[in-house]
Amino acid sequence: MKTTAPHWLGTGRARARTVAVSGLVIAAFALTACASGGSTSGGSAQTDSGGDITIWVDPPRVPAAQAFIDAHPEIRVNLTQIDGTVGGKTLQQQFAQFNQAGSGWPDALFFPSNDDIAWASGPQINYTADLTTSLAETIKGYDPAVIAPCAVDGKIVCLRNDAAPDVFWYNKTFFDTNGYTVPTTWEEYATLAGKIATEHPGMVSGFTGDAYAPDRYLWASGCPTNDRLSATEVHINLDDPACQRAKTLLTTLSEGKALSPLGIFDADAATVGQNFVMGPGAVWWGDYLFNQTWKIPAGTMTAVNPLKWEGETTPSTGDEGGGLWGMSNHITGKEAANTVEFMKFVATDPAWQVDLSTGLPGYGPVQDDWIAKQKASNYFADNDTTFAAFKAATGYVVDKHAYMLYNTGGIWTETVTPALVAGNSVDSAWTTFGTELLNQAKSFGYTVVDAGK
Amino acid sequence: MTTDTLEAKPAESRPAAAAPTEGRRRRRGRRTEARGGWTLLAPYLILLLVAGIIPIGYALVTSLQRSPTPLQPQAGFGGFDSFITVFSDFRFLDSFLDIFKVMIVWLPIMLIGIVGLALLVHASRGRFGGIMRFIYYVPGALAGIANFVLWVYLLNPSQSPIGFLLQNGGFSTIKGVVSLDNLPFILAGMLFFQGIGTWIVIVNGGLNGIPEEIFEASSLDGANAWQVAWHVKLPMIRPWIGYAALMNLAYGFQLFLEPYLLDQVAGGSLPDQYTPTQLGFAFAFSNYNFPAAAAMSIILLVITLTIGLLIVFRSGLFGEEEK
Question: For tag attachment on chain A, is the N or C end more exposed, with fewer CB atoms within 10 Å?
Answer without folding.
Answer: C
